[in-house]
Amino acid sequence: MSADRLDENLIELFIYSPKSDDSLIELLTVCASYHRNGLPLNLHHTVNISRPWLGKSKCDHCFISNAYLDGQELELFQYDGKEIHCYWLIPITEKERDFKIEYGCEELEQLFEDRQLNYLDPDRDCLVGDRN
Question: Which of 38, 40, 46, 47 is least enclosed, having the fewest CB within 10 Å?
Fold first, then answer.
């Protein structure tokens, strides 16, 4: 995704899934293509994937996050004299994306923690309730 980039957007992405599915390869390929040929992606960006990430999931967007579950052993690596960040691509709903835009990425990540995000459940409900 980033091996020959000349700017500071040197990232790679990974995604967790409850099962193997070719659509995940397509999702990561689309993200890599956008990163290389469109605008570069980076930490805390969101991506509209325009379809469910698996099956009939309500998650049709993704959020690029630190590799919290794996720590710096996965997040940072050296390649060809460059430091590359490996970030977690988390499937989210459009409402969760809107929440991030309105309240910020730290609040979204806090929501994930407070509501105990089940990142492996493609059938999970949106974590954002009405905020009246």
Answer: 38
Phi and psi at 14, nearest 5°, equal -135, 160
Q: Which residue has the tokens 């790679």?
A: 12
Give the global pTM.
0.91
Pairing of strands 11-14, 61-65: unpaired
β partners of residue 61: 48, 92
Q: Residues 56-77: what's their mean pLDDT?
A: 88
Which secondary-structure segment (H or E) carries 72?
helix 72-75
Q: Which two tokens stand for residue 96?
A: 């969760």
Per DSSP, 124 falls in state P
pLDDT grade for 59, boundaries at 50, 70 and 90: very high
> Rounded to an integer, what distance in angstroms lies between the CA atom of residue 63 and that of residue 126?
14
∠ CA(72), CA(74), CA(78), 5° rounding?
Answer: 90
Give yes or no for a contact between 90 and 62, defined as CB atoms under 8 angstroms apart.
Answer: yes
